[in-house]
Amino acid sequence: MAALRAWFAQQGFIEAEPGALTRAPGAETHIDAFETRGLYLHTSPEFAMKKLLAAGEEKIFFLGKAYRAGERGPLHAPEFTLLEWYRAGAPYERIMEDCVALVRAACNAIGADRLAWRDANCDPYAEEERLTAAEAFSAHAGHDLLGAAISSEAFSRLLTAHVEPCLGQTRLTMLREYPLSEAALARRCAHDPRVAERFELYACGVELANGFGELTDPVEQRTRLEAAMAEKLRVYGQSWPIDEDFLAALAYMPPASGCALGVDRLVMLASGATHIDQVLWTPPP
Asked: Which CATH superfamily is domain 2-279 in?
């Protein structure tokens, strides 16, 4: 934690501390949140951090707890440590470079020269691999991602079963240019409107980070949020309120890129842990 904070201090970032309670915990269809008395614990501070960018902050990071209900397993805990940061005016390729530097800073702090998970090993100091989602799905799942229509459920199944296990083997992998249906809060790519400026960082087949070139169009973002919540209601019988303050802030938010990185997972892979509970100070009951 100290090494990560030191890295951001050297880069001229300010540490933000947004509140964990919110009326709209996120935009994700398949993530659940803890609710209490009409408020939720945030699943990520993303909306709050973007409001800070709209208010004039330029380089901010959050290092603290996030909460997701129903998530428990070797790689999941309902309360976990999240690192999230944003650069105003920066392309999302710059955030990819940050990811690699932060992984190496964590490894240096722990004294690890390898990342490991189950039978896989990854050298965090080797030059990272960069693959588009279309390239990865073609190579590992035999699917033409952009040439054939695919539902979010099918995308997720193929990603989990065939693509993810092949990523981050021997070196870090950046999976980028997700199809627009999986864009979430990412803007469209200028060179191909079928894909978005979204990437995920993988090591040993494990997702460590999720980053965006941020969407700042409030009209398109509202459409995406409403579609995500409609799908959430259809699949899970519940939905979250739309954060109107967040949508209003987007009109003032500068072009920016940002990322969220799971600190516990990174520490797991760097330390050789086999379950997330082994790297938590006080594992949840």
From this structure: Bira Bifunctional Protein; Domain 2 (3.30.930.10)
